[in-house]
Every structure is written in structure tokens, then in C-alpha cells.
Amino acid sequence: MFFSQKLLGCVGLLTLSCSVASAAHSFAGSNLYYAAGLYASDRTTLLDGMQSAGMKVLRVWLDGQSTSQKGTNIDPFPDLEPTQICNGAANCYNDTVLQRLDDFMIDANSRGIKLIISMHSFNALQAGDVYGREYGTGYFYEQAYPQQAFDARLQHVMNHVHTTLGKPWKQLNDYIFAFEAENEAMIGKGQQYIEDHQQWQCDRANTIKNELAGNTGILVITGGESWMDESVQPGFLSCASLDAISIHAYGTGDYATSAIQTYVQRAQAAGKKLLMEEWGACYFTTENNNCPSGSVLSTSTRNQNIQTWASQITAAGLPWLYWQVLPNADPHYGQDYEIGIGDASWGTLESAAQAALSANAAFDFTEYLL
Ligand SMILES: *[C@@H]1O[C@H](CO)[C@@H](O)[C@H](O)[C@H]1NC(C)=O
């Protein structure tokens, strides 16, 4: 009886309170893996640019950096575990990267932007960080000890007490949008390996969720794989501790609205959210998902690509984070999807991000956004 009255009341209100979920707005954001290495003026440029584009989320990594990246000057900082696997020994970690991000998240918050904290990367593992040196890219995901020591790393990050706010990161709902264990876990191993080791992702998500200790104001997400199908594993959709699945996609087939919608429906059926956490438009005339060098696309063609693909992703109801917005002009080094603030494609990306903010989304992220 009570239930049916509520339903009637709902109809009577004529969609005002009842359509909130379906009227949830989308949003856009960006990635900058080396954000902790930005000098103050670049940080201001980046965050001001993101704010003017209406971008709401910036995804950052914790890997140490010592040299300039993508034409951005770097204030060097070491890895969180610079010399050995710390396994929870507090004075073994070097918290410089966390302290840098303490300042960064204050500036971001003042511009309506929250951070995704990606707590490790496959890239660092493969490049031979403390875990990679000892366990390589296979045993790291397979043996008990590295998983235990890695969980201790996740706990260390989440319990880092913010330098000025005086609270651990795991309580900073106004500053942190989501935690993820690792950027693109296992990707160098191929899709079959990822399918065979899906449990690794859920085990790490359990660690993060347990550490949140009932705080549901920060999302637990996956950190993506190489493309859509690889990113959305059945074991991720059925993992109780995961709130959202991160999709990374660079092949243009994965940007088709109808292709994305099949994954949206699977996620909705599983009670999970989806986020296009990494996508980009190649600067060269190569296939979009193979962008190391080549002839340069005309500005108008690239801008058309950015506009078309962003609007297709938005039309499927997915929020998206571009890979990557730079505080400086893009020098076009290496895999080149970047757009510098002020570059010829910046205005196009800005408009696409603003359009996302006023579009409907398939998933309601409202309570997680500033
Ligand atoms: C952390 O790294 C910084 C920069 O390399 C260094 O100056 C500092 O002494 C290190 N701190 C600890 C506790 O090892």
C-alpha cells in the first residue's frame, strides 16, 4: 500500500522527482599522468583551461617522473615505492607524489574539478619498477605476496593524511572522484590473459572498498584496458566492490554510438556505471589506434574527428575523459592524441566538453561531481 502510494505520488509529481536518474547530465574531463610534476604556472593553466571547458574530472597517476613529458617541464619526483616493495612499512614509502597531489587537488576543487587517483600503472610495472623488477608482468598478478604487498600500497595511498586538510584521502569526497588500482592492468599480456585473471581486478577492488569503510562518496573503478570489449569483462560487471567500469578505446569502431550502447545495456543490467576514461583523436593520418608518427591530418579533419567522436560517445550516454589535455603546446612526440590548451584543436575539444555537460547520461554520476 505504502509502496503503491509512493508510485502514484511519483506519477502525480509529473516526472519532477521521478525522472531525476534519467535526466542525469553527462560530463567530460581529461587525463594527465604526470600531473604531480607540474610547476605552479602550468597547473594553473591546465586547471583554468579545463574549467573553461566545463571539465569536471582529471585522472592522475603516481609514477615518478624526472624529465620533461610531452613538452611539459617536470618538477621531478620519485616513485611512491622508490627502492623496494614496502609492504606497508610506512617509512619505506616516499610520499612526495601524494603531497604534490595534496596541493593539486585543492586547486582543482576550487575550479569544480575532482581527481581520479590511479594508484599504479602497467606502464611502470613493465618499465621495471620495484614490482616489475622482482615479479615481472606475470607473477605480479599471479603470486600471493605481490598481491598482498600491492594491497598494502593501495591502503597506504588511501590513508595518506592530506597535508593541509588533515584527513586521509579515503575521506576526501569533495576532492577525489574515484580510486582505481592500476592503469590498464595486464594489458601487455593480451585479452586472453586478462579474461583468465579478472579476479585480480575484483580482489583489488575489494581492498579499496574495504578501506573506504562504508564511504560511498568515492567510486571504485577499474582503470581500463586496451579497447572496449577488453575493458568490460564479465567478472568486472559481477564484482560487488566495483562501482564503475573504465573503458579505454582508440579504435574508431568503439566510438560508434550503437556499439557503445550494447555495453551500456550490459552495465545497466549489472547495476554498474560505465565511463569512457580514455579516448583520443590521433594527430596523424594513421589508423586512430596506431598513432606513433606519420603525415599530419589537416586541422579541419582532426577537429571534425574530435567533434564527431565526442558527440557519438556523449550520445551513447557515456561521460568521457580525453587523453590528454596539456598545459603547453603539443610538441607532437610519440603516440600523439594530446591537445594543448591554445592549440588549433583546443576550441573544438572545449565545445565538445561543454556539450557533454548539458547532455543526458545513461548513468547518474551527479552525486560524485562538484
Ligand atoms: C623522497 O624523495 C625526495 C625527492 O627525491 C627526497 O628529497 C626525500 O628525502 C625523500 N624522502 C624520504 C622520506 O625518503
UniProtKB/TrEMBL annotation:
Residues 42-325 form the Glycoside hydrolase family domain. Belongs to the glycosyl hydrolase 5 (cellulase A) family. One of its GO terms (cellular component) is extracellular region. The keyword Endoplasmic reticulum does not apply. This is mannan endo-1,4-beta-mannosidase. It is an enzyme of class 3 (hydrolase). It comes from the Eukaryota. InterPro entries: GH, Glyco_hydro_5, MAN-like. GO terms for biological process: mannan catabolic process. It holds the Pfam family Cellulase. It is found in: Secreted. Keywords: Glycosidase, Hydrolase, Secreted, Signal.
